[in-house]
UniProtKB/TrEMBL annotation:
Domain of life, per lineage: Bacteria
Name used for this protein in its record: Sulfurtransferase
Keyword Transferase: yes
InterPro entries xrefs: Rhodanese-like_dom (IPR001763), Rhodanese-like_dom_sf (IPR036873), TST/MPST-like (IPR045078)
Classification via PROSITE patterns: RHODANESE_3
Length: 271
């Protein structure tokens, strides 16, 4: 299954027996608004997943602002959503695929292969005049023992080793945050030393449609597995999906910049 599907594809397959559609709308500035938007109208049959309640784990001293869920939490999410081993899962949002890509990544981390993001999100669905409903779907919980794929992620110490080895480290945040000129969220401005800046939103157009894999992806040396981070491990997943579309297997630093700066002796760079 492809990592991205079109509105046309989803419309044609919406009532397939093994299809699971997940609404991931979420606004960091207004956490309750995503679920409210879902209740006001979603793709028929879609279930809801909340970034902070479902797609993130418990926050601690380290681990960043949106730690990955542990295996038990992820197991519960997969089964609550009714996902079975042969399910095709389509995730969407209205935030340039950031939350949908997070779920896409987490499902891969849980070992589920057949998952994709809706190209253009719910705005593209609405734009085609397709049906929207507000009623909550009836979901039969599944039983799906998952197995986490630790090869998809790296630790802070892995990032430090990558710095020594000269491996590519990608900062997915906006250029002004990467440079340290602006920092609206985290306590320290700047970026991880040796990181290059590939802004995650550059993967999409203003209408939230995905571009062809960026030419810069071709700059990665053949066989290398770049490390991707952002502020808290969410928008980095957009870059990971884009890299995968280009045939490059990238790894996520889950805690990302917010984890890196939680260690006082870790250096940051400003431009």
């Amino acid at each position: 299954m492809k990592n991205l599907v079109t509105v046309e594809w989803l419309s044609d397959h919406l009532y397939d027996e093994k299809l699971v559609v997940v609404d991931c709308q979420f606004d960091l500035g207004n956490p309750s608004s995503g679920y409210e938007s879902y209740l006001n109208g979603h793709i028929p049959g879609a279930v809801y997943a909340n970034l902070e309640k479902d797609l993130s784990g418990e926050i601690g001293e380290h681990g960043g602002r949106h730690p990955l869920p542990d295996q038990e939490q992820l197991q519960h999410l997969v089964e609550r959503l009714g996902i079975e081993p042969d399910s095709k899962v389509i995730a969407y949002d209205n935030q340039h695929s950031a939350m949908a890509a997070r779920l896409w990544f987490l499902l891969g981390f849980a070992g589920h292969k057949q998952r994709a993001v809706l190209n253009g999100g719910i705005d593209a669905w609405r734009g085609e005049g397709l049906k929207i409903e507000s009623k909550l779907p009836s979901v039969r919980a599944s039983h799906y023992p998952i197995s986490l794929d630790s090869s998809m992620i790296v630790s802070m110490n892995d990032v430090k080793q990558a710095q020594i080895e000269g491996r590519t480290i990608v900062d997915s945040r906006a250029p002004e945050r990467y440079s340290g000129k602006e920092e609206p969220i985290d306590a320290r401005a700047g970026h991880i030393p040796r990181a290059v800046n590939y802004f995650w939103k550059d993967n999409l157009t203003e209408t939230q449609k995905w571009r062809e894999p960026l030419e810069r992806v071709g700059e990665i040396e053949s066989g290398q597995e770049p490390i991707i981070y952002c502020g808290s491990g969410v928008t980095a997943c957009v870059n990971i999906l884009a890299f995968q579309e280009a045939g490059v297997h990238a790894k996520l630093y889950p805690g990302s910049y917010s984890d890196w700066i939680s260690y006082s002796d870790n250096q940051v760079v400003t431009l």
